[in-house]
Design brief:
This protein is α+β, with helices and mostly antiparallel strands. It has 17 helices and 28 strands. Helix content is 41%, strand content 13%. A hairpin with a 2-residue loop joins β25 and β26. Bound molecules: 1-deoxymannojirimycin. The site of 1-deoxymannojirimycin has 11 residues, from α10 and α16.
């Protein structure tokens, strides 16, 4: 037994030691997270190669891997084709998964494999095939994959062997782009959803398409025009987008499906998920990529309408575009991309609150089910599947970029663990047919390599993004933000305006992804804090979610410190959330307080207990 005096001094030392050595505590913290990141990066790297090598062994050059039977499917002609109509007789695939993997290979630093893929595609890929493909899917996966890979191949920063590359991928992309053009030959300029790569629009082709199907082509086709100098692709996509926007209701809402020959809506109900999702994404990303104010104006009105009519607390339901009345109360796996888009926009408070709910659902089922009925709190009877979708990983990556809150690393870790325990099989990664039984399905979708693995990898290692500006397409293919493609580069995308991340040992330039493009308006300035409302933020009507974002900047804290003559901790208020003092505790307000009112707080018993928000948000 130790003498009582010694025990007393040990206890005193333990109590005061954190204040004597504050730096070593935070250093221990940061080396814990650095080690965690290295470990997780390796895990994701291994996942990607397990999927990729199995694809090469059992499926290449066909489109996608069937990981249970270790065989293949030529699925480009099946994508979006639910009834599997008009399947081609002699189509042997387009190496879809290889094309989709190329930007991930570069991000993971495997230039040798990337070059091998460039060579193979240059010599073998041929689009002159009798295959009826979905324009949207082929655009985001194949055209986007090729255009992005071409840019990466010609970017000297990637140190690829420049001499061996003669723009072969761009030539292929242009050939494909030309084959898309007949689809746009309609009285409205809205493209058909389906086109035969060899013969153009087929006889008796359906005239029905979706909002995302005809409204999210501008990034890939715009980039193709900028690269080739031929404006025809960008003009076709832009004309369709403008026509679609002109079909919005007086509430600035759109429907989900429409007729390309009449320009009439077929389905008036819409939300932010299937059939619409990337339409919103592309309005905003087109503004970033091409700098046109027009895109910003469209996006801003559309975004505000979504926040006003679809949002219910952290959830998004569907509504009728004509009157804004709620129609379907459903959470869908595809909606999980929305918080990521909100981060880019700058509406981080709303992004954070929705993202947390998706994480809850992921944890409840082990993965995200395709559709969950919010009004009945049950799974959709037939859409219980999880096809290895990337959206939650994508949003987690964006939120970590913006906040550097290590809690998002933990979310990423649990996504990785779930994928490895439920979906990894000897022959790759399999989709889940039913999240209640975890029964598997024999399909490894190409977006698992293009997006799911990529966003998880970037979450744990973002070195590819440092000092560079990229916009990721909806399929996760990076396109650079170049001043030569711009009418005017947005302020936030000019490197001299980039913020510095204070949490690093040495200040490091952040990528544009950590910035808020959506302009902030200063509302009020009281002695302790400045209220800043993002122009993109619409407080929802529920009383328990009615606070607007309030940020306290470092400068104001310092100013307040001087005026009050005492040390203040940076404070960040979020909607109903307050972080102060002890950085590690996230506290939830019991009720929304008035300014400077004494507030009662309680520990957040939810999943965010390990947060450490910092003031640079
Ligand atoms: C991807 O093909 C794209 O992200 C698309 O926009 C919709 N979702 C799938 C993956 O879930």
């Amino acid at each position: 037994m130790l003498p009582r005096q010694v025990v007393k001094w040990i206890l005193v030392f333990l109590v005061i030691s954190p204040s004597l050595f504050p730096v070593s505590v935070s250093e221990a913290d940061s080396s814990y997270w650095s080690a965690k990141k290295r470990h997780m990066k390796k895990k994701v790297h291994d996942m990607f190669y397990h999927a990729y090598e199995n694809y090469l062994t059992h499926a290449f050059p066909h489109d996608e891997l069937k990981p249970l039977s270790k065989s293949f499917t030529d699925s480009l002609s099946e994508l979006g084709n639910l009834k599997l109509e008009h399947l081609p007789q002699h189509y042997n695939g387009s190496a879809l998964t290889l094309i989709e993997s190329m930007s991930s290979l570069v991000i993971m630093g495997n230039n040798t494999e990337f070059e091998r893929a460039v060579l193979w595609l240059s010599e073998n890929l041929n689009f002159d095939v009798d295959a009826r493909i979905n324009l949207f899917e082929c655009n985001i996966r194949v055209l986007g994959g090729l255009v992005s890979a071409h840019i990466l191949a010609t970017d000297s920063a990637n140190r690829l062997v420049q001499g061996s590359y003669k723009n072969q991928l761009l030539t292929l992309a242009e050939d494909l782009g030309r084959r898309f053009l007949p689809a746009f030959d309609t009285p409205t300029g809205l493209p058909y959803a389906w086109i035969n790569l060899k013969y153009g629009v087929m006889e008796n082709e359906t005239t029905e398409t979706s909002t995302s199907g005809c409204g999210s082509l501008i990034l890939e086709m715009g980039a193709l025009s900028r690269l080739t100098g031929d404006p025809i692709y960008e003009s076709a996509a832009l004309r369709a987008l403008r026509r679609l926007w002109s079909m919005r209701s007086s509430l600035n809402l759109l429907g989900t499906t429409l007729d390309v020959t009449t320009g009439e809506w077929i389905e008036y109900s819409s939300g932010i998920g299937a059939g619409v999702d990337s339409f919103y994404e592309y309005l905003f990303k087109a503004h970033i990529l091409f700098g046109k104010e027009d895109f910003w104006r469209m996006f801003h009105s559309a975004y505000l309408a979504v926040q006003k009519y679809f949002r219910h607390g952290p959830w998004y339901h569907e509504a009728d575009m004509r009157n804004g009345k709620a129609t379907y109360w459903q959470l869908t796996s595809l909606q999980a991309f929305w918080p990521g888009l909100q981060v880019l926009v700058g509406d981080i408070a709303a992004a954070n609150s929705s993202h947390r709910e998706f994480v809850h659902v992921w944890k409840k089922f082990g993965v995200l089910p395709e559709r969950y009925l919010l009004d009945h709190l049950m799974l959709h009877p037939t859409e219980k599947y999880y096809p290895l979708r990337p959206e939650l990983a994508e949003s987690t990556f964006y939120l970590y970029q913006a906040t550097k809150d290590p809690w998002y690393l933990e979310v990423g870790e649990s996504i990785v663990n779930s994928l490895n325990s439920y979906t990894k099989v000897d022959g790759g990664f399999a989709s889940i047919r039913d999240v209640t039984t975890m029964q598997l399905e024999d399909h490894q979708h190409s977006f698992f390599l293009a997006e799911t693995c990529k966003y998880l990898y970037l979450l744990f290692d973002d070195s590819f993004l440092v000092d560079r500006n990229y916009v990721f397409t909806t399929e996760g293919h990076p396109l650079p933000v170049l001043s030569s493609w711009h009418d005017r580069l947005p302020e936030a995308y000019i490197p001299r305006n980039w913020t510095f991340l204070p949490s690093e040992k040495q200040a490091r330039r952040a990528s544009a992804m950590t910035l808020q493009v959506c302009p902030a308006t200063s509302l009020d300035c009281r002695h302790r804090c400045q209220q800043v409302k993002s122009a993109c933020h619409i407080p929802d009507a529920r009383s328990d979610h009615s606070r607007t974002c309030i940020y306290v900047t470092d400068e104001l804290s310092n100013e307040a410190q001087q005026s009050e003559g005492r040390k203040l901790s940076p404070i960040i208020h979020y909607e109903g959330l307050k972080v102060s003092g002890k950085k590690k505790n996230l506290l939830r307000l019991e009720s929304a307080p008035h300014n400077n009112e004494e507030i009662r707080v309680m520990e957040d018993s939810g999943i965010h207990h390990n947060s450490s928000w910092t003031a640079h948000q």
